[in-house]
Amino acid sequence: MIDLADDATAAAILGAVPCYPVPPIGKSPAIDALRAAKAGHGFIIGQDGVMLILRRPWLELDVPVSSPIAAHLPYGRVGPSNANLRCGRIPGGLLRRVLEHFEEALPNEAAAFVIWDEATGAFVLDFPTIDEATPSRLVYRPPALAAGSHVICDIHSHGRSGAFFSPTDNADDAHATKISMVFGRIDDPGGAVRASRLCAGGMFLPMPRSPFSGDQYAE
Ligand SMILES: [Zn+2]
């Protein structure tokens, strides 16, 4: 018989990423603590499936990660999915500055990060040091973050090409928790095009609306 107390790694993993059944009343102190955490993630299981509960200082994400379970579960429901920016929406003026930066960089690709300070609530832009930029390739270093600072949004341009996530982008985003955006056709008279997604839990999730205030764009 295996005793978890004898396996420090197994016990640590289950402690760091817990999994709780939802009681018929729909909540429990452990689930409430998971939802209220400043940072961390875990899973809850209800009659309507398995849900990932992920928290960052800037993000609350509740997202189903399974279909409803066919077996009868005498549990409550995990409830609706939710994605909420705890940091609030990003000031729209920062998006305009990013797009100006991308236009100045033409014909090359360029990049920008939106960073949020949890102590002050302030958003700032970081234009990273570029090691190599061409119209189809960009090598840059992510910003060094002070304690309490978080990358909310990782944005890059595809210059005059289309907006899509390349295999390189997918590899870069696989382990991150952030909003990822690509802009293309930067100086197109009809306006730039974009693709955006929320990277979390090893998944790429659609963004139902722009994270920038005053930006009416919807996928
Ligand atoms: Zn790209």
From TrEMBL:
This is PRTRC system protein A. GO terms for molecular function: metal ion binding; metallopeptidase activity. Residues 94-188 form the JAB domain. GO terms for biological process: proteolysis. The keyword Zinc applies. It comes from Sphingobium yanoikuyae (Sphingomonas yanoikuyae). InterPro entries: DUF2016, JAB_dom_prok, PRTRC_protein-A. Residues 7-82 form the DUF2016 domain. The keyword Hydrolase applies. Keywords: Hydrolase, Metal-binding, Metalloprotease, Protease, Zinc. It comes from the Bacteria. Transmembrane segments: none annotated.
